């Protein structure tokens, strides 16, 4: 999410004839001293690590009925078991993994489409803007969930990737609108005008003049799209259109609700997935604020 | 002769019709000439400046030609103009404060600009440092971000950047309006220095500020409502203007060169005419104290003395 094209951090080294050699070390210097960035990044990385490495240490499937039913957390079952005797910890680590995948892929696709449409529409203006804006508005007013249900229900292959693809293809419009309006205001600045004057290509101006000045905005969009994709995936999982035989934090949450974990007091069933999603999206937000302070020279503090 | 503009007409397209922002502008700019371009708001100064480098989307080239060093500028063709920009014609924008990308270090931005112009940054690196020193900047500004510089420093960076490729024509559009008076002076001096060293061949300096023009310009062109009212050497314009508009414009200023004045300064009553449907004849007629019957016909721009051209029927009087 941080590799927004043209962000100052990704400066091509060695091409600067005059100044800017200390670029990387300078970014690192500020990055290391920013508590928000450090806290956010460590939580996200921790969760990612759990999702990536955790499943390797568990020798049974997340949906296997292996233990006693409805036991609270213990030394053997770290997060207890469900009312069917499934290991909640195993479900959690596998769920975290697929949640990251859905979020990254679904959010990523939506982000790519949304920002591209937004930048081109906002920068080019005129007839291009009209057409892209119309397209955006059409997709925006489509009842996304219904389209998803219909599309996913008729698909033969039903996996995480397909689910993420469909989420990505339907959730980009607001990002496009947001990026477009930002672009409209930035495109009238003098430095964009000067760049235009120098006859640089449209995409060069977008990546070097426009995107870096709204990088925090872009990262923010990605994080919200990521969170949105996770939640939409959870919704789809709930109505039985999730990946066949899979597991995700959303699926855990919904099955906990479906099997009355709340009423039965099985808090270890619904708190981990809920906390997992909250923690993930929340720490990504903090990370974003931190990144903004690192990359935007105006917000830097010594 | 660096620049020759023949009967240039540029209109703004609006829903209610064309706004005749430039309506037949004719002038020449000699080698090494710094021309001050003065006039009220809306008289077409900025439009003229923009027309010479880049027409924006609403502007339409209706007629006339622009010749730079004997070569015609394809001003109506945005693409064809690209090779001329920065190499032959360059611009210092109105607000240098916002002319620098806040997320780019200055050195990197200049490199990018050079590369987009097909120039290897290394080839001009020494020259760049020399010129920065010339305007009183340390070469280490190249490693800084725009917010680390003061307004005057940014302005000077932009000046160096715009003139780095030795353009024939430099357009400075209100380049000093956002600066305080002492900074204005140093900026103006640097600009004159650039001309003296041959970094730029000639310059059009768009401004409201006649006293600033007096300091630096060789000639002054006064525009009114999309037309040229008068063009002459700075001295002539200040001391012996012929066009009634120029006279009133100069009269509305605290007198250049003196510190006290007995008489109350007079403004020019009325407002410039709308250019959506410009009046026939002399455009200054409605506000002119000398206006008479003959002013219903458009006065030609005639040379009343060598290098002094006026568009008024009353110049003989």
From TrEMBL, chain A:
The name this protein goes by in its record: ABC transporter permease
Superkingdom field: Bacteria
Transmembrane segments annotated in the record for this chain: 37-58, 100-123, 135-154, 160-179, 217-246, 266-291
Main localization category: membrane
One annotated Gene Ontology cellular component of this protein: plasma membrane
UniProt entry tagged with the keyword Oxidoreductase: no
Keyword Amino-acid biosynthesis: no
Cell compartments where the protein resides: Cell membrane
Record organism: Nocardiopsis alba
Annotated segments matching region Disordered: 1-23
Domain ABC transmembrane type-1: 96-288
Keywords in alphabetical order: Cell membrane, Membrane, Transmembrane, Transmembrane helix, Transport
Biased segments, Low complexity type: 1-15
Gene3D superfamilies: MetI-like (1.10.3720.10)
Segments forming a coiled coil: none
Membrane topology (UniProt): Multi-pass membrane protein
Family as reported in the entry's similarity comment: Belongs to the binding-protein-dependent transport system permease family.
PROSITE patterns, per database record: ABC_TM1
Molecular function terms from GO: dipeptide transmembrane transporter activity
UniProtKB/TrEMBL annotation, chain B:
Pfam families: ABC_tran (PF00005), oligo_HPY (PF08352)
GO biological process: peptide transport
Segments crossing the lipid bilayer: none
Molecular function terms from GO: ATP binding; ATP hydrolysis activity
Residue span(s) of domain ABC transporter: 3-250
Keywords of the record: ATP-binding, Nucleotide-binding, Transport
Entry-linked InterPro entries: AAA+_ATPase, ABC_transporter-like_ATP-bd, ABC_transporter-like_CS, Oligopep_ABC_C, P-loop_NTPase
Source taxon at top rank: Bacteria
Name of the featured protein: ABC transporter ATP-binding protein
Source organism (scientific name): Nocardiopsis alba
């Amino acid at each position: 999410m941080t590799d927004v094209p043209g962000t100052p951090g990704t400066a091509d080294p060695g091409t600067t004839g005059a100044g800017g050699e200390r670029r990387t070390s300078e970014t690192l210097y500020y990055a290391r001293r920013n508590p928000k960035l450090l806290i956010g990044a460590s939580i996200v990385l921790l969760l990612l690590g759990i999702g990536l490495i955790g499943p390797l240490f568990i020798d049974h499937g997340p949906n296997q009925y292996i233990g006693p039913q409805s036991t609270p957390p213990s030394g053997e079952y770290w997060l207890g078991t469900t009312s069917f005797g499934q290991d909640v910890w195993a479900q959690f680590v596998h769920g975290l993994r697929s949640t990251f995948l859905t979020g990254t892929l679904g959010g990523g696709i939506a982000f790519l489409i949304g920002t591209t449409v937004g930048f081109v529409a906002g920068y080019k203006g005129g007839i291009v803007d009209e057409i892209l804006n119309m397209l955006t508005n059409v997709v925006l007013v489509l009842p996304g969930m219904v389209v998803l249900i219909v599309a996913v229900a008729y698909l033969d292959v039903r996996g995480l990737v397909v689910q993420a693809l469909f989420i990505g293809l339907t959730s980009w419009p607001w990002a496009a609108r947001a990026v477009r309006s930002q672009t409209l205001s930035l495109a009238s600045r003098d430095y964009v005008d000067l760049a235009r004057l120098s006859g640089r290509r449209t995409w060069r101006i977008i990546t070097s003049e426009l995107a870096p000045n709204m990088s925090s905005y872009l990262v923010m969009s990605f994080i919200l799209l990521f969170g949105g994709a996770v939640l939409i995936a959870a919704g789809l999982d709930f109505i039985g259109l999730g990946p066949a035989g899979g597991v995700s934090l959303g699926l855990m949450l919904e099955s906990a609700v479906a099997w009355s974990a709340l009423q039965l007091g099985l808090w270890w069933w619904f708190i981990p997935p809920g906390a997992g999603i909250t923690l993930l999206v929340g720490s990504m937000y903090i990370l974003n604020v931190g990144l903004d302070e690192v990359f935007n020279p105006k917000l830097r503090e010594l | 002769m660096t620049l020759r503009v023949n009967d240039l007409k540029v209109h703004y397209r609006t829903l209610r019709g064309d706004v005749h922002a430039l309506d037949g502008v004719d002038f020449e700019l000699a080698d090494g000439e710094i021309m001050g371009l003065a006039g009220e708001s809306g008289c077409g100064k900025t439009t003229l400046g923009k027309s010479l480098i880049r027409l924006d989307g609403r502007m339409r080239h209706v007629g006339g030609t622009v010749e730079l060093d004997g070569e015609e500028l394809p001003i109506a063709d945005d693409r064809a103009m690209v090779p001329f920009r920065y190499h032959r014609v360059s611009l210092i924008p109105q607000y240098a404060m916002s002319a620098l990308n806040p997320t780019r270090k200055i050195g990197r931005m200049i490199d990018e600009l050079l590369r987009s112009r097909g120039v290897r940054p290394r080839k001009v690196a020494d020259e760049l440092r020399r010129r920065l020193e010339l305007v009183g900047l340390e070469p280490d500004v190249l490693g800084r971000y725009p917010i680390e510089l003061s307004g005057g420093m940014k302005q000077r960076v932009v000046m160096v950047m715009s003139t780095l490729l030795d353009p024939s024509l430099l357009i400075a559009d209100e380049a000093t309006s956002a600066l305080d008076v002492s900074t204005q002076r140093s900026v103006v001096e640097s600009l004159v220095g650039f001309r003296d060293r041959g970094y730029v061949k000639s310059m059009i300096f768009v401004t409201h500020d006649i006293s600033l023009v007096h300091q630096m310009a060789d000639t002054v062109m006064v525009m009114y409502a999309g037309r040229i009212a008068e063009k002459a050497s700075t001295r002539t314009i200040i001391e012996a203007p012929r066009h009634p508009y120029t006279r009133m414009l100069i009269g509305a200023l605290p007198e250049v060169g003196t510190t006290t004045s007995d008489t109350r300064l007079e403004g020019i009553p009325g407002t410039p005419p709308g250019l959506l449907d410009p009046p026939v004849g002399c455009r200054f007629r409605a506000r002119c104290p000398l206006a008479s019957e003959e002013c219903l016909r458009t006065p030609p721009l005639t040379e009343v003395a060598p290098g002094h051209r006026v568009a008024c029927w009353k110049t003989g009087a």
